[in-house]
Every structure is written in structure tokens, then in C-alpha cells.
Amino acid sequence: MKAIYLTGFMGAGKTTVGKRLGEVLQLPVIDTDAYIEQQVGKTIAAIFAEEGEEAFRAYEREVLKKLPTEHVVITTGGGIVIQEENRQFMRKHGIVIYLHCELHELLQRLGDDATRPLLMENKQKKMKQLFEQRLPWYHEAHITIDTTNRTVDDIVENIVLMLKSSRI
Ligand SMILES: Nc1ncnc2c1ncn2[C@@H]1O[C@H](COP(=O)(O)OP(=O)(O)O)[C@@H](O)[C@H]1O
Ligand SMILES: O=C(O)C1=C[C@@H](OP(=O)(O)O)[C@@H](O)[C@H](O)C1
Ligand SMILES: [Mg+2]
């Protein structure tokens, strides 16, 4: 089976849903952010603060190409779709699943979160701006699942059904 890439905005549940999906499908799960943190030896926040966003995007691009492309669930960072070569790579080598979530719920889910450096200031305004900019890129996925107001188990069940019926 080709790699399953979960994409979507910060707070869409990629990391959380991916873990559960891996258990259900009995596939290993790799989170690109966790992988980068381990390789670089710093948190994502420290990478942004000390090396800047460009350096982080370079790590993200390199890691994506290094990871396996078969029998794996890969949970990506929300900004992976910014780079066209990442979008092309994921579409070519795997099944891309976009976890959609409405902005109002994303804001609720990330209300108290302080781990995402892009949302440290003007959270509401920044989220809306990034969300609208990225939406067309997320929609390049093979499969879209709406996660708004749904439980993790319900979302995973929906993904499994979609995978069974898709011919990708
Ligand atoms: N379906 C869901 N319903 C409610 N809360 C969720 C759901 N999925 C994830 N969350 C919560 O939202 C936050 C962000 O989830 P996370 O998996 O880190 O998202 P992402 O990796 O897409 O940024 C976490 O606190 C998580 O528990
Ligand atoms: O959307 C983004 O640009 C980012 C999303 C984060 O991952 P999550 O989507 O898992 O929060 C993380 O990669 C970094 O803070 C940048
Ligand atoms: Mg995540």
C-alpha cells in the first residue's frame, strides 16, 4: 500500500487522527514535526525562533523525501503544502488525505495552544489569513474528510471507508 499522507491546517487533528489510523490499519506512523524535532534536536518553536521559518521549511522538504513511501501513515505539518514540490511529491508517491475543519472550530481547538510559532501573535487574524491562502493547496488532495464537530474515532472510520472505496 502507498503511503497515506494526512494534510490540513494546524489543529485539524492530523497528529491525533494519524496515530489512531495507524493503530487501526496496523501501519507505522511518522509525524514530520516529531521527526524533525528528533533529527535537529530542538522543538519546532526553537527551530523557528533560532533558525527562522525558511530553515524549518527546508528541513520539512528534506524529511518528506527521506521518509518511506509504502506501508506508512505520515502526518504532516500544516504548512507542508506551501511548497509545490511537496504537494507533487505526496500526490505522486502516496494517497493524500486532507483533514478539513472549519475555522471557528480550529480556533477553539487551538485556543490555549502555545506550541505553534506561527500563531503566537494575532492568532485569530493570522489563522484566517493562512487558512484562506492555503485552502486551494489543501484541496489538491485525493480525498477530503470534514472533521468539524466529529470525534477522532468517527473520522478514522470515515478514512478507512474512503480508502476501501478509492482506487488510488
Ligand atoms: N476531532 C477532534 N475533535 C476535537 N478535538 C480534536 C480533534 N482532533 C484533534 N483535536 C484536538 O485538537 C488539538 C490539535 O490536534 P493535533 O492532532 O495536534 O492537530 P494537528 O496535528 O493537525 O495540528 C489537540 O488538542 C487535539 O486533542
Ligand atoms: O501550519 C504550519 O505552518 C505549521 C504547522 C505545525 O504543525 P501542525 O499542523 O501539526 O500543527 C508545525 O509544522 C509548524 O508549527 C508550522
Ligand atoms: Mg501535528
From TrEMBL:
Pfam families: SKI
InterPro entries: P-loop_NTPase, Shikimate/glucono_kinase, Shikimate_kinase/TSH1
CDD domains reported in the protein's UniProt record: SK
Sequence positions that bind substrate: D33, R57, G78, R134
Compartments, record wording: Cytoplasm
Top-rank EC class of the record's enzyme: transferase
Pathway: Metabolic intermediate biosynthesis; chorismate biosynthesis; chorismate from D-erythrose 4-phosphate and phosphoenolpyruvate: step 5/7
Binding site for Mg(2+): T15
Binding site for ATP: G11, A12, G13, K14, T15, T16, R116, R150
Catalytic activity: shikimate + ATP = 3-phosphoshikimate + ADP + H(+)
Details of cofactor binding: Binds 1 Mg(2+) ion per subunit.
Similarity-based family: Belongs to the shikimate kinase family.
Quaternary structure (record): Monomer.
Cited function: Catalyzes the specific phosphorylation of the 3-hydroxyl group of shikimic acid using ATP as a cosubstrate.
Protein's recorded name: Shikimate kinase
Species per Swiss-Prot/TrEMBL record: Anoxybacillus suryakundensis
